[in-house]
Design goal:
Shape: extended
Radius of gyration: 21 Å
Number of strands: 2
Order of helices and strands: EHHEHH
Structural class: mainly alpha
Strand order of the largest sheet: 1-2
Strand content: under 5%
Distance between the termini: 44 Å
Largest sheet: 2 strands, antiparallel
Length: 135
């Protein structure tokens, strides 16, 4: 657990209050909820000897992966698998992952060729890892 910056704590508290008011709840916002808005809390199963900065770095990378999958599901239709057999499903999924990599490479080339490329730098690029059964 890490205390959020004052700006982040204020934004988090604003989000909590907005979400609470949208529920049209007549119950009061709990003091513990208000107090916890000032902290960043990440639950992990990593051993105790792993430092907080390492946990947060791993969480940031994992979040980028989650965003990449969310993007692929919405833009490439990876949220629905039309094939019924395992072999066809795997082929369909691998073809779409290759397509995602090609799109990412082309997008990166375009962004790097723009005069404002420094402003569009992305923290994570997709790469195809060695998959033992990919053949």
């Amino acid at each position: 657990m890490r205390r959020a910056t004052p700006e982040a704590a204020t934004q988090a508290l604003r989000r909590v209050r907005r979400a609470h008011s949208k529920r049209r709840s007549h119950a009061e916002l709990q003091p513990m909820t208000i107090q916890s808005a000032g902290y960043l809390m990440v639950l992990t199963s990593l051993p105790d000897d792993v430092g907080l900065d390492e946990v947060l770095a791993a969480y940031r990378v994992r979040w980028q992966v989650e965003l990449a999958f969310k993007h692929m599901k919405s833009q490439l239709g990876l949220d629905r698998l039309p094939a019924k057999s395992r072999t066809l499903a795997r082929s369909w999924l691998l073809a779409h992952l290759i397509l995602a990599l090609l799109i990412d490479d082309l997008t990166q080339e375009i962004l790097e060729s723009l005069p404002s490329a420094a402003r569009h730098a992305r923290p994570l690029r997709l790469t195809l890892a060695d998959y033992p059964n990919a053949a």
